[in-house]
Amino acid sequence: MKLPKFLLADNSDFPEDLFVVHTEYPRFVLNVEEEEVEWFDDLEGDDEETVADEATKVVEAAFKWCDEELAKYDEEEDEE
Questions:
Q1: Average pLDDT over residues 65-80
Q2: Are 55 and 41 in contact (CB under 8 A)?
Q3: pLDDT, tens digit, 9 for 90 and up, residues 24-70
Q4: Does an H or E element contain 5, and which?
Q5: Cα dist. 5→28, 47, 48 in Å?
Q6: How far apart are CA 79 and CA 1, in angstroms?
Q7: Which H or E run contains 38?
Q8: Which residues have C-beta within 8 Å of that of residue 76, sequence separation ≥ 6?
Q9: Higher pLDDT, 80 or 31
Q10: Which pLDDT does position 48 carry in this prediction?
Q11: What are phi and psi of 63, to 5 degrees?
Q12: For residues 22 and 73, what is the distance between their CA atoms, to the nearest angstrom?
């Protein structure tokens, strides 16, 4: 099965929070409201700074994707 790179998620135990799940390496869950990341994979690399930069980039991409997805939901509601 092919999964999308990012998924939106919520949970009734955390009704105020919205999550983004990143399904590719490095896999993580981002709590958008709290701006916290839970990594599923160990971040590996020879250069710690490069690994940190790549992690920052993928988390920023997750935030950007989330904003774009939420904007699509808003557009759909406006059309109704």
A1: 86
A2: no
A3: 999 999 999 999 999 999 887 768 888 889 999 999 999 999 999 99
A4: none
A5: 11, 25, 24
A6: 33
A7: strand 36-39
A8: none
A9: 31
A10: 84
A11: -60, -45
A12: 20
- Radius of gyration of the chain from Cα atoms? 14
For residue 77, is pLDDT > 80? no
17: amino acid identity, one letter = D
The whole-model pTM stands at 0.87
- Strands 28-31, 19-22: pairing kind: antiparallel
Is the separation of the CB atoms in 68 and 74 below 8 Å? no
Half-sphere exposure of 63 toward its Cβ, with a 13 Å CA cutoff? 11
**Residue 61 backbone phi and psi in degrees, to 5:** -65, -35
In the chain, the amino acid numbered 2 is K
Cα–Cα distance for residue pair 27/39, rounded to 1 Å = 6
Q: Please report the pLDDT score of residue 9 as a whole number.
A: 97
Residue for token pair 């955390």: 14
